[in-house]
Design goal:
With about 120 residues, the protein is an alpha+beta fold. It has one domain. Helices cover about 30% and strands about 35% of the residues. It is built from 4 helices and 7 strands; from the N terminus they run βββαβαααβββ. A hairpin with a 2-residue loop joins strand 5 and strand 6.
Amino acid sequence: MSIGEASLDSRSFKFSNEGSVDVTSFAKQVGIKLPVVISKNVWNEMVKTDENARMYGQNEEKRLESLLSTLRMELLKGKAKDLSFTFFICKDPKTTSCRLLKACYKDKDNGERYLKICTYDEAS
């Protein structure tokens, strides 16, 4: 896998110039109708797995599905321009990581709306 790509088993995703990954196809599978992108930081911290995590049954597809399912539940609570939510992942049986994330509605140049998920301290 070259720099600038993200992989979920047989699927490969490219990072855009803004450093985000389009995960719309996975978002649709969990019931999110808008296009969704996640920042490179969120991908690396919350989705990407290492050898230790994979040894304990973690994989990128399940982490992404869990992240998007958590986002969906937050979206169902109500419509806000920007929302923040907490996401937990288990790195191994003794290590859990918790991160405050935010999702912002954005508009493309053509006026189409999408959601961007990033870490709370990233500029949106």
